[in-house]
Specification:
- The chain is 74% helix and 3% strand.
- With 317 residues, the chain is mainly α.
- Among the domains are: 7-155; 275-317, no CATH class.
- It has a two-stranded antiparallel ribbon with strand order 1-2.
- Helix 1 (17-77) packs across helix 2.
- The chain starts with 16 loop residues before the first helix and ends with a helix.
Amino acid sequence: MSLYRGVGGSGDSTTDASITEVTQQAQNAADSATAASGSAATASGHATTATTKASEAATSVTSAANSATASANSATASSTSKDTSANSATASANSATAAATSATNSANSATASANSATTASNAQSAVATSATNAANSATAAASSVSTATTKASEASTSAGTATTKASEATTSATNSANSATASANSATASSNSASGASGSASTATTKASEAATSATNAANSAAAAANKLPLAGGAMTGAITTNSTFDGRDVATDGTKLDGIAANATNYSHPTNHAISVITGLQTALDAKATTATVNNLSTVYDPIGASVAMAIALGG
């Protein structure tokens, strides 16, 4: 247990100066109470003396008044000693005034002495109260010593706890520093991500615009494709014009030629030579007109008309 060594730290390892100091303070308070009681008695004596002085002053006032009366009588009785009696009367009057002032002062002194006696009595009561308080303080000091012992034990425990907490605080500080570094790195990464996100947002906006344009183009292409003739063929609903050919054919030129062909005409190829049977009755007509002649021992059938017809047929006429 910790021991109070007194003012200046004097004492040995076995003596607790706390109780001794409190006891001394209680003794000092009791001595102060005794001294205050003596002061009250002295003040009471001074009050009695002041009362006596006040009575003496009153007697002096009466004597002075009597002297003034005697002086006045003397002035009346003796005209020859008028001036002297007048001076004596003035002096007596002054003495009376001084005596009255002294009486007033004595009365004031008596009042002050009475007040001092009251103050001394109050001081005596206060000293008694101080003595009681000192005794209470001694009891409280004894309790404080016990409490101090408990607090010392608690302080020792608190010191151990404080050491542990200090270690924990150091660890927390290190962790906080690491967290601060990590937070700074995260902030930098976040800033970079924000910049990247801004760039991505701009790119996304551009791509969205391009996608919208592509969608519009796709819709237009789909509409145009719906109006196009498939490669496999299909029905055309409008007129077809061209400045070239179809499968190597000039449709316009061929059309002009086709316009000159009669309806239901067939493709007839005129042979270079016709059989005589092709012409109905030709053979009979030729037989009727035929003549026979012998030239150079050759039997030749000469038919001028038939010859002309045959020549015409041969020539395509």
